[in-house]
Structures are given as structure tokens and as C-alpha cells.
Amino acid sequence: MELFEAIRTRRSIGKVKPDPVPKEKIEKMLEAATWAPNHHRTEPWRFLVLTGEGRKRLGNVMMAVANEKNEELSPAEKEEQLRRELNKAFRAPVVIVVVASPAGRPNVLEEEELAACHAAVQNMLLAAHALGLGAVWRTGKAAYHPAARQEFALADHEKIVGFVYTGYPDLRPPAAKRTPFADKTTWIG
To answer: Is the entire prediction scored with pTM above 0.90?
Structure first.
């Protein structure tokens, strides 16, 4: 796939088939992620690939988040809500947890480390698209909740920058429209 076509046609695909994704395709996505630009060549990312029952770990985090906000619910309603939250982790056959692991050196800004991890996610999404996969980058409260730190054994300096749900598309993405770059660009010369 030609680069500019891939950039223009990539869409977030939130509905994917339950079919397994070959490990080789996931590895290509991960390799693409590692080629993201990063200041001081720190490579501040790491990845946790959740498949099969491994996705339940993300479900546990989602249930912990939901459990904090459902005090007014009846026991039956609470149980149903927790079941729905757990099922969210199983919306795709593969979920990649992208973790920012900043170098922690005095000359390296944490903001730049996070930006590098965001670029790594974009590379992953483009690679998924080029491989015929659908993917969506999700965050939300689960990414930042203390339960996620514990469930995924994050070090004190680490942060989750997203969950990349991946599988074979089960929908046709709508056409997208963007504001022309000229409307958002100021040339200073």
C-alpha cells in the first residue's frame, strides 16, 4: 500500500471479527511501532499483547473502574454492568497494551517520551491497515486507573498510552473528511 494512500484511508475500526490474527501480523505491527521517532533514541515503549484468556486482565481493570461508580445499583444491575465491562476486553482477538517507559535521564523530557509512544501507536495503526487488519486506539479511565498499574505490573515511572484493539474488520468504515491543511497552517518566513 502506498504511504499517502494508507494515511488517507486508515480508519479506527471498532468492530472486528473474532477470527484469530496470525502472530506474524502482530509482530509486523510491533516492529513498525519500534521505528517511531524518539528523541535521544531512548525507545521508551514496551508492549503487552493480550490474546485468548489474557484479555481478561484488561477486563479485570475495566471491572475495577466500573465497580467504583455503581454504588447505587442493585446487586443484579451491578453484576450485569461488571459482565459488560469484562466483555469489552474481548471485543477484539488481540489487544496490545502500549506502555510508555520513560528513560528517566535528566536530559530527556517525559513529554517527548510520551510523544514517541504516541508516534509508535500511529505506526502500529498504519501497519495494521496495510496488513488488512482493523484496529482502534482506546484509552479511557482504564488506561490511567491504579488497577491497570497493578494488573500489568507497571513500574512507578511507566504509563499506559493506549490499548490497540486489533482484528479483521467487520464493518466498512465511513468515508472521512478532514479540514484542509491550509486552513490550519500559518507560514512564517
So the answer is: yes
